[in-house]
Design a protein that fits this description.
This protein is an alpha/beta fold and 288 residues long. The protein is 31% helix and 25% strand. The chain contains 8 helices and 11 strands. α1 crosses α7 and α3 (106-124) crosses α6.
C-alpha cells in the first residue's frame, strides 16, 4: 500500500501539555476533513501525562500520585488502557488524513499508517515488527500490559531480563486510531526509554512489579546508542519520505498550525481534555 496522494504538512516536534496535544490531534482531523492539509507530526509531553483510554474507569488511577508528581491526566479519543507519557521516554506521533483516501477496513488502514513507524525503527537499527504470537495480559488498566496481539502490537526482540540470558520480544510502540468528521486520526508512542516505576505509579495498586513491567516493555535506548533528538529526527524523516511516495502528493516539511487551529484547540482543551467531569467520567459507564 502507498501513502494517500494528498497535500501533507509535517509539523515537527513541539512540547505541549497532554490535554493540548490531544486537542491538536482532533483539530488536525477536523482540518483534513474540511479540505485542508493532511497532517503528520511528532510531539512531546510536557509535563508528563497519563492518557486514559476512551472507556477507561477513572478509579484505576492513583490521582494522589499524579497530583503529587505534577502529572497531567487527560482522556484519549482512542480505546485501550492508560498510558504514561513523559518528555524524555516517549516519542509521540500522529497522522490525520481524509477518510476517503485510506482503506475503510480498520486493520488495513492501521497497517498503512504504521508503515512509516516500522520504517523509522528500521532506520534506527531496531528490529521491530508486529508480535508473532499473542502474549497474555498482565494488568488490564495499563495499555502496555494488556494482551499483545499479532494484528497490531509492535514489539522488538532482546533480552527479557537484564543479565539472565533469556531472549524475548517486548512492546516498543503503541498505536491507535479513530475516525472523526470524515477524517482518520492515528496516534501513537514509540518508547525511547522506560521508567517502569513511574509508569506503574500512576495506577491504583497495580499487581505488577517494575521488573515485570520491564519484561513486557522496552525502550529504543536499550538496543541502539542514539540520542532522543536523533530518534525524533529519524521518525520525522520516515514520515516525510512515506508521505512523499505518491507521485501526486505534496509535502510542506516545515508545516505549522494556523491561529484558527490553535484557538480551536484551546476551546477543546477547556471543553473536554482538561475538563475534570469529562476526564473523571467513564463514557458509557457512569461517573467516577
Amino acid at each position: 500500500m502507498t501513502a494517500p496522494a494528498v497535500d501533507w504538512r509535517l509539523i515537527r516536534e513541539e512540547a505541549r501539555p497532554g490535554p493540548m496535544q490531544m486537542a491538536l490531534d482532533e483539530v488536525a482531523a477536523e482540518t483534513a476533513a474540511a479540505g485542508g492539509p493532511a497532517t503528520l507530526r511528532t510531539y512531546r509531553w510536557e509535563p508528563g501525562c497519563l492518557t486514559l483510554g476512551r472507556h477507561q474507569d477513572p478509579e484505576t488511577v492513583d490521582w494522589a500520585f499524579c497530583e503529587r508528581e505534577g502529572i497531567d491526566v487527560t482522556r484519549r479519543q482512542t480505546g485501550g488502557g492508560g498510558i504514561y507519557h513523559d518528555g524524555f521516554g516517549d516519542v509521540a506521533y500522529s497522522v490525520a488524513v481524509p477518510a476517503e483516501t485510506v482503506p475503510g477496513e480498520l486493520l488495513d488502514c492501521y497497517h498503512l499508517l504504521c508503515e512509516p513507524i516500522l520504517d523509522a525503527f528500521g532506520r534506527l537499527g531496531v528490529d521491530a515488527d508486529y508480535v508473532d504470537e499473542p502474549m497474555p495480559e498482565l494488568y488490564h488498566p495499563a495499555c502496555y500490559l494488556r494482551e499483545l496481539h499479532p494484528a497490531h502490537d509492535v514489539v522488538a526482540g532482546g533480552k527479557v531480563g537484564a543479565g539472565d540470558g533469556r531472549d524475548g520480544s517486548r512492546k516498543v510502540a503503541g498505536n491507535a486510531q479513530y475516525r472523526k468528521r470524515e477524517a482518520v486520526i492515528q496516534h501513537g508512542s514509540l518508547t525511547f526509554a522506560v521508567d517502569a516505576a513511574r509508569h506503574l505509579g500512576v495506577f491504583a495498586d497495580p499487581p505488577v512489579t517494575p521488573e515485570a513491567f520491564r519484561e513486557r516493555v522496552v525502550g529504543i535506548d536499550e538496543f541502539v546508542d542514539v540520542g532522543r533528538t536523533d530518534a525524533v529526527a529519524t521518525v520525522e524523516a520516515a514520515l516525510a519520505d512515506w508521505a512523499s511516495e505518491a507521485p501526486e502528493a505534496t509535502l510542506d516539511p516545515n508545516g505549522s498550525w494556523t491561529d484558527a487551529e490553535l484557538e480551536r484547540a484551546e476551546e477543546l482543551v477547556a471543553e473536554k481534555y482538561r475538563d475534570e467531569e469529562w476526564i473523571r467520567t467513564r463514557p458509557g459507564g457512569g461517573g467516577a
